[in-house]
Design goal:
heterotrimer; A mainly beta; B mainly beta; C alpha+beta; A: mainly beta; Rieske Iron-sulfur Protein; globular; B: mainly beta; 60s Ribosomal Protein L30, Chain: A; 2 domains; six-stranded antiparallel β-sheet; four-stranded antiparallel β-sheet
Chain lengths: 148, 235, 409
Amino acid sequence: MSGEKSVTLQKSPTLSEIIINNELPWVQLIESQLLDIPRPVMPLVLNGKRLVLFRNDGGMLGLIGRNCPHRGADLCYGRLEDNGLRCPFHGWHFNYIGQCLEQPAEPKGSQMYKAIKIPTIPVAERAGIVWAHWKERYGFDEAVNTAT
Amino acid sequence: MGCFNLVNIIPIEAKPFEDFVDGYFPLAVTLAHLLERRRFESALMVIRVAPIMDIPNLESMAPVPLHINPRYSGQIDWLVAAVHRPQPRLSAVISGWAQWHWNDILRGKVSRLPYSLRLAEPAYVRGVGFYPGNLHTCSLGYVRPVNTSSSVAVSTPNANPSDSSVNIEQFDTAECLCWNLNQKHFLEWFDRTTVQPWGCPYTPNVNNGSTELLLIEQRCADTWDAFISDTKAFT
Amino acid sequence: MISQELNDKITRVGSGTPAGNLLRHYWQPAALVEELHASLPVAVNLLGERLALFRNDLGHWVLTARKTRSDEPIVYYPNADQIQILDDRPIYPAVEKNGVIFAYLNDSDPPDFPNFDCFRADESHVFAFKGLWECNWLQALEIGIDPAHASFLHRFLSDENAEDHYGKQFRDKVIQTNIPITHVLREYHCPEIDVEETNYGLKITALRHMNNGTTHVRITNQIFPEAICIPLSQEMTITQWHVPIDDENCYWYAMFTSFGEPINKQLMHAQRLKEHELPTYAPKKNRLNNYGYDPLEQKTQTYTGMGMDINVHDQWAVEGMGAIQDRTREHLGRSDKAIIRYRRILRKAIKALEMGDRTALPMHNNDQIKSIVGPLSNDTIALTDDWSGVSHRADLKRRAACSWDASIL
């Protein structure tokens, strides 16, 4: 990452979309320190997949698809709370591997959340760098979901 | 009334309902959730115009793909089914008739819906639910007979003809709609190659009582009308 | 999830498309009367068509096609002298209703207007405004028939002073109580939703059962094909159309209708001009400035971090879905039941038109259309055991006290 880009990110974390094209099994994303901000959530496009990278309360990093599977709202504006990311449209709550854990507006006893998982790419941090395990991506439809 | 084996017509407790069911899980799981929620033993229900999917090799409670694929998607135009959950927490057993199409035209030729069928989104359902009791039926499980009058009755080969508490007088064939719940379709499949007079006013050539029938009085309250007309929507 | 084919069918509005054909069987808001103060004709982009609005020789409003440059932006307001009318194209009728020009983009005879409150209230009691959303009309409509989202998207983490509520959504107190609606929405986020098909569309009841034995009852409506009617405050309702400019842009047209005092139009107008640019009526907060998103505000004040104007929240939600929401990847829940019921009516109506049967469309029987009144649209509090009927009684009371004829007998 260039120093210039990191400055932009800190100024306005939601505006800057990082775009990376690299189909190696492991892809270097950003320096970990870029996430040392009050709300560590950032949009990212990796090989055409529109994603959101976030750090949960426990420090785990999640790299998941950017549109809420419910009605497509943009999760980059999600509420970072309860150890995951929550969609501001209806409060659907996702953990760092994209599994839906709560749908608070659904009728009591609903089990639908179990069927909902956002596409995800495993992430690791080594020596201050965030890496994505592109080869192990899960749940993407290869034909679509590209950046526009 | 002459065409029925009258001793076998038993009024049962029944409740018309309309509801929404979740999609995404296999239909048998989805409908079991509905029965559980409404505390029904079984139900006769209609779904009209609902997107469906049949995803190969997906476990029943696993997350579904995020994107519907033309290879495995389609639409139910009309489905009428008897749904029964044999035991708590089990999937429902479904039998009935349907009209549908798959987006994959090669698949369109198949005359059965697979057991792995799923709704691709929640669906609006109309139906009649039956409460648990001790009257054994083939398609509706153990339902609850009523001593007082009811707008709904079953005629089943397994009914106890000596049950003197049953009031059969209210049923007049001219004023009843009759559904055939013949158990030969009682499979994990829908089969449209053998459409029966289902959802149509009863025609008096049904045999002597070996066929399981469900009767609904035509005079009953308005809430039934939409359900009855939905069941007749087969074209 | 629905197929791409079906999504195209219910979203695209150009001439000859299934949904476009359906919308061309209903009166469409085409302009605000306040836009006509400049000289005529006025450019109107509607249902993918580039039109001009003017008065014909008889003094009636009409629309017809105008000459278009290929590089013309989709939201475009040229001066009258730059508009060149094409004389060989169909001429569509238009009428003025309480501050809004409605157009009928079809050769067939237009249906009558139903007797909705926004049409029959005195002009002093109706205020009209519009706003641009850069997305398909259907997703814009569907957020309006989703009673659950208000408890999340429009959640205020604390309750604002309700004295400053005039002309704003969800800021009033609940009728006959001291409870701010913001409180009810926040604390009771899982409403029981009931949807009923009516002769105008859908009646949607959201019940929020509160822990003091009472229930908040909010009644909203879908008016077929692309409008909603919802309460704004104790004395006002909003009837709002989501009108396609083309497949990927739409205007909301709102008719605020008061059952109480005449509307303070200057104040309502000033409130909204603060948030919109003229002549496009484009919101000042938009995708380019992240809708004013502020992470700190999201943490402490609002659910979205996008300020107090709920229109911005809705705009973010629907524009963020993409120009046309990709419904091959949506996952509706049971709380979306009004959307599901609505799409059934929509598909049925599209099918009826494909079969050539206009009479099967909602509100197309002129013998009955004038008897379509209301619709009932209010917030009330009732005993949880006995909520049914309370909304209706409150509605009758409000109508009885109304200065214009609001009777629904």
